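Researcher: Structure for this, please.
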Amino acid sequence: MMDIAEILKGKKLNEKVTVCGWVRTFRANRFISLNDGSCHSNIQCVVDYENISKDILSEINTGCSLKIIGILKESQGKGQSFELLVDKIILLGKSDSESFPIQPKKHSLEFLREKSHLRIRTNTLSSIMRIRSALSYAVHLYFHKNGFFQMHAPIITGIDAEGAGDMFKVTTLNNIGDDIKNDFFGKETNLTVSGQLEAETYAMGLKKVYSFGPTFRAENSNTSRHLAEFWMIEPEVAFNDIFDNMDLAEDFIKFVINYIISNCYEDLNFLDIRFNKEQLSKPSEQRSSLGLIERLKFIINNDFVRVTYTEALQILIDSKPNKKKKFKFLIENWGADLQSEHERYLVEKHFKKPVIVYDYPAKIKAFYMRLNDDHKTVRAMDILFPSVGEIVGGSQREERFDKLVERMKKLKINQDELWWYLDLRKFGTAVHSGFGLGFERLVLFVTGMSNIRDVIPYPRTPQSAEF
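Model: Predicted structure, token format:
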């Protein structure tokens, strides 16, 4: 038995092949469009209904699963190059045609989210998930090729790496007032928001490590860009400063995107057509000037511009958008955080290249980022892409014990809980850096989708944890 992808790639004409899959359509008691998920393309199976049992034919409808044996021939019709002349059909699983929700017609993405267990059988979702799988492979491939070791950061943790407090509590206690010492771990624990701090410990012994796993945030943000459960890619490298970190992030992103262009072109081309149609339905100020594949090539074919926060701020202040297009969020004072519209302006209008902004104000960044000599900024960096704005956040970490303690005191971060993190600064401290890339954000960008719920198999969002 062969996958449809193997059959269409091999194109062994006049040979008998066996294929299994699900029926997309069945027309005129003669043409079965079959898909097994191995590729975007269906294979057309042509039935000689005089030689196939009418009982079998009467059971074939959209959604049922079949095993078909036949001869591969050049197609005599339009729409496909090859077709399977059917010798035998075996019905593997019936489908109730009246209640099967994924009928051969256009369905809204909102509707399909309610059918997440079945939406993978649509063209759009199957293409997205094949690309997601390929991206995951490319992530591991890049780090393996470049001498990184994977470390599995704990999912249950007693620390809040981001300091935001939006965490899911893990407990076996039945009552809120019960003594925490009687809890399973004997202390307050949560689902992790980041594996970065643990990755730093391993970078101090293995030099180059990366964590790639699930993370969780209890932030009550029900938007198209937020999930409660998502995956994070977090490399950490000892002896790398902020500029080494920029080089690594740029090289990594270009590698994985180029991998998708080289290995997922059929799915990408389908999503490109969909993306371009979707753009036409948007207001002109929200449209992308690039198609999906053009946008990906824009990333890999351009050097990333590097500019400090202070320089970027001055560009934004000096910019004079025309009367039809003003910034929704005015930016005038140094120290203000950049909004998505500001980030997109830098990428799409000013530089017309991907942009790395670095040396941010300390007051808007995390405690672990290295303080610069001006005592106002830290060695933080964000990578900005067209359409989406920030896609990567990273920094050079504060390797100096006294500076880290001073920063933690200022932000009222409990040093007792992070005694082991401080130990790294006592025993063989070294410059080190890393970055975080939300995997779903990357899939969102590469596939051209507009809602992050459509690039993860089962989205977890406020008031929604179905399946």
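Researcher: Any notable elements?
Model: The two ends are 32 Å apart (CA to CA). Residues 4-100 form a domain with the OB fold (Dihydrolipoamide Acetyltransferase, E2P) fold (CATH 2.40.50.140).
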